[in-house]
Amino acid sequence: MEHARADSPPDLVAALARARSPRRPGPGTPAGGAVRAWPGPPAAFPTAGPGDLDVQVLLRLSLAASDGSGRLRPAPSAGALHPVDTELTVGAGCSLPPGRYGYDPLRHRVHRLGPQPDGTPPGVTAALSVTARRTLSHYGHRAWPLLLLDTGHAAAALYLAARALGVSEPEVRLDGLAENPPAAVHIPPPGRRGPARPADSARRPEPSEPTPAELLARRSAPPPLPGAPSQDALRAVLATAARAGTGDLRWCAAVGPPRPGLVEPAADGAALRRYAAGEARPTLAAWAAGQAWIADAGAVLLAVGCPADADAPHIRRAHLRAGFAVHLAHVTARRHGLAARPVGSWQQADLGAALGAAPGRDWVVHALALGTRHADEENTT
């Protein structure tokens, strides 16, 4: 995942096993620069011409920082450390001249790296890689799944920004086959279709186009998150996640009284099916690095899968798709008046074994804690 740097994991399978263990991270280390040091001078974005894809607005809606520290961005990140770096390959039909560029999200500027490769399609392709040191500085051995989840969130932010600009067919690569870059998003100019989609590219999961205002307003709500979502809101959030994170993941939600347990979408998608009884939220709080507030969250959306014997491509694919799906589910939650916060760090979270199934098969990969905006809005129906 890293550009041949010393903090790149020699064995992703072993790295995930360590991240899932109860061992606590050691003392923090320096995070290094908040932005990759791209070569060459920074350049502002040209004004988009008629019919061009406005790359400046695309990145403003998806990856640009809105504060000087770089912590506040449309895409969330574990610890607000934002390890994802973006390299753009620009073809015809864009506000930027064709070429390769590195993006600086703090200054909202680009650095030209060279000409575009032969055969570059119209539009822009954002290749997403990571500077692992940023996340390792705080999370230590727990960082590697978080790096992949953050990359999935960044891919989703680009996808939604493209939809907000009228692009109907962004192509998202989250197949897990490539170590570096692990993800890429191709965005054709508005009104044009991109290249043929590979079978494993992300499906279009959100039927209604987001608005720029709602993308810029998306923030992770601070805990606590009390108040149970309505059945309609929870069903919509689950449906969005299930459509966006298909394949290797199972989606369910932990809910509290009056009927605590785990629910999942029914086969017809029109209702929620209860498949496990009992209060799960305190156990989830213990598994999620001891974040006690999760025990009182209104509900917790869960992405489950990635067995202990998964190989590196499977691990990358499951975590990338989980981050992508949780990001879209977060937008759906906000549309239904819910507060939401992604939860990415999980230890000993073998949900399948806790429910009596074979151990090592169904681990919690990612989650989205949900609540109403005020505790007195709790829905008890």
Automatic annotation (TrEMBL):
Quote the InterPro entries the UniProt record gives.
Bacteriocin_Proc_Enz, Nitroreductase-like
The identity of this protein, by name, is: Nitroreductase
Q: Which GO terms describe its molecular function?
A: oxidoreductase activity
Highest taxon of source: Bacteria
The UniProt annotation puts the region (Disordered) at 1-35, 180-230
Instruction: Tell me the organism.
Output: Streptomyces paradoxus
Q: Which PANTHER family match?
A: NITROREDUCTASE MJ1384-RELATED
